[in-house]
Design goal:
- This protein is of the alpha/beta class.
- It is built from eleven helices and ten strands.
- The strands form two sheets. The protein has a six-stranded mixed β-sheet, with helices on both faces. It has a four-stranded antiparallel β-sheet with strand order 2-1-4-5, with helices on one face.
- Helix 7 links the parallel strand 7 and strand 8.
Length: about 290
């Protein structure tokens, strides 16, 4: 099955994902057999989520830590299969057509993995070869992307382990864009970056959408980032989409047109994002 560019970039229908983890509060001794037999509890990471993303759109999923954002990204990138429901990427089923889906997407995550002893360019060269991009063309693309992200050319041959967190994340963005994906999945790509690096990554994301009609699905808990970058935003809380629309539409729905997305979140959940983050960390679902 070929990519259907007339289909929605992403279509999700009643996606549900449950993780079963050891119940640390179930008691018992610390022996091996007791740990093995320990009761497990279910964490509902994604709860009947349904949405569509149009081609060329920057769609934001806004929510606190542990709300299900990353699990949803992993489902769409074929790393995790849902327990129920379906997801399609340009008409391709993420389970049945997983290999085809992987050819038209790429993913940037907050915990991007590298060969830390190798240089930025060596990591990018490896990615280029893996995806069949000629080395010379790969280097040209990499230099162009890194330059636009404010990554100094004199740093490209330095080991990744010697680069700052912000520099490493710029390499991760460049690696994801080497293959010119039609769908870019970005899982909190600017978390931990300094304000200048954050703005550079945001500007580049908006730029590729304008120049190449790329579709971007962005998860974040940065309200300002969502408001600045995204065409539409969904708010996810406890694995459910509780609202979806443009920023102005969400403000109207929450009755706070003069307020911020933080105000919208508070109106819809009864808590501010900081408290919701703490609640998500306490649940420990890793979603």
């Amino acid at each position: 099955m070929d990519i259907d560019y007339d289909a929605p970039a992403v279509r999700a229908t009643d996606l549900t994902k449950v993780f079963r983890v050891p119940d640390n509060e179930s008691g018992g001794s610390s022996g091996f057999l007791d740990r093995f037999r320990r009761r497990r509890k279910e964490i509902l990471a994604v709860d009947r989520v349904a949405f569509e993303v149009k081609r060329g759109e920057i769609f934001g999923i806004l929510g606190p830590n542990g709300s299900g954002k990353s699990t949803l990204i992993r489902i769409l990138s074929t790393l995790v299969f849902p327990d129920s429901g379906e997801a399609h990427v340009f008409g391709l089923h993420v389970e049945r057509d997983a290999m085809r889906v992987r050819r038209c997407i790429n993913r940037v995550s907050v915990d991007a993995a590298f060969f830390k002893k190798l240089s930025a360019w060596e990591n990018l060269s490896y990615a280029a070869r893996l995806y069949g991009v000629p080395v010379r063309e790969g280097r040209r693309r990499a230099r162009s992307i890194l330059a636009e992200l404010g990554f100094g050319e004199d740093r490209v041959d330095q080991p990744v382990e010697d680069l700052s967190r912000g520099m490493q994340q710029k390499v991760a963005v460049a690696r994801a864009l080497l293959t010119s994906p039609v769908l870019l999945l970005m899982d909190e790509p600017t978390t931990g970056l300094d304000p200048v690096s954050k703005r550079q990554v945001q500007d580049y994301v908006m730029g590729i959408r304008e120049r190449h009609e790329a579709t971007v699905l962005l998860t974040t808990h940065d309200m300002d980032e969502a408001e600045r970058v995204c065409n539409r935003v969904s708010i996810i809380h406890h694995g459910k989409f509780i609202a979806m629309g443009t920023v102005d539409e969400l403000k109207v729905r929450a009755g706070c047109m003069e307020g911020s997305l933080e105000d919208v979140f508070f109106k819809m959940t009864g808590m501010d994002l900081a408290h919701a983050d703490l609640e998500g960390e306490a649940e420990g679902d890793g979603a």
